[in-house]
Amino acid sequence: xxxRIVAAVLALITAALASMAIPxxxxxAAQDRRDFRADTLASxxxxxxxxxxxxxxxxxxxxxxxxxxxxxxxxxxxxxYDATGHEVAGTGPALLTxxxxxxxxxxxxxxxxxxxxxxxxxxxxxxxxxxxxxxxxVLSRSTxxxxxxxxxxxxLIGVVSLAGLLAAGVIAVGLARWASRPIxxxxxxxxxxxxxxxxxxxxxxxxxxxxxxxxxxxxxMAARLQALIHGHQAMVADVSHQVRTPLAALRLRxxxxxxxxxxxxxxxxxxxxxxxxxxTRLVNGLLTVARAEHSTATPARIAANAVAADRxxxxxxxxxxxGVTLTIVSPDPVTVxxxxxxxxxxxxxxxxxxxxxxxxxxxxxLTVRAAAALARVTVADTGRGMTATQQxxxxxxxxxxxxxxxxxxxxxxxxxxTANGGTVSLADTPGGGLTVTIELPLxxxxxxxxxxxxxxxx
Length: 458
What we know:
This protein is of the alpha+beta class.
């Protein structure tokens, strides 16, 4: 932003200076040239007036000689010629060729023309009240002083313009920093708030009034957001306690009743136990989704390959019991940036879903690889798979193809992955089945120091 403001101000000042300085310089230089030509012609006319009597009388005129010497002292070349082209008085070299001199003697009007760094003027000498031309005066004056004056003029214009540009640049930089610094501060505060630092406020005391008002509105929004999230977290904790406790008590009572009842009643109580178990999973899933959607934890560096190996080891006994082969492919260490514990929940939900879908003799392959700036985690199974319509709706709550499922597993995965700045997608496994691909941002630092044993306890 600073560079754009400075560039815009400098472009505007440059255009303004160019529109004024260049025409001013051209007009002033043209006026200097006109003045130089007029002065040269005036000197030639004065000499012609002095030469009129001398040429008419055929005698030398001391005033004319003095005038010629004065012109020579100033560096001018002058020559006085009679009607036959004979030089009556002069300062040195021939100023005109014979043809040019003959043409000047036939010209009734004064003339001037530049030639080889000099300006040459010819003025006719008239007699008898100006009716007859009896000679001509040729005056050649160096244009060095004129050129020097024009160079000085353009130099001054250039220096003044450059000084104006420098001053404008300094002012533009100050203005840009004054305007952009609070915006940068506000952007940084928004980034920290998005990363989960709910204590972030934008304390801006300088800058444009509009930005200060925006900062005040941002701080108000952050405070209200903090209050809402804290209230929601408190509600989630209360619901977790208030709902799980009665369910646990109800399950215990049903277990006690099942001990002293007949076979038919025991079967009914077992069905009730299954429904209570399903309700418990549903409540736990809803609480997990709520926590993921309102997660404010700070991301940490997590060793994704270590977490994957730990979760695969934890689920392998269940897979073997079902006759399913669970393998893990993790050739290189991969470190991701994620909230502590979220990757474990993601893998647990994916592996649980895969085990429900894969029949005996099937396989589940868990792969962890680094791809560009992302870590790619895939869970590929050889189960029943999903249709294209089912894949489109898979991340919605309560959408399930399993009779006893809650429809929250993939919804939880989607919320957790999104909360960590990643993406999740579904695809068909070659040969049949479903492949879930998770992409999370890589961490440039060292991996999280937690050991797999620690991860298994979280």
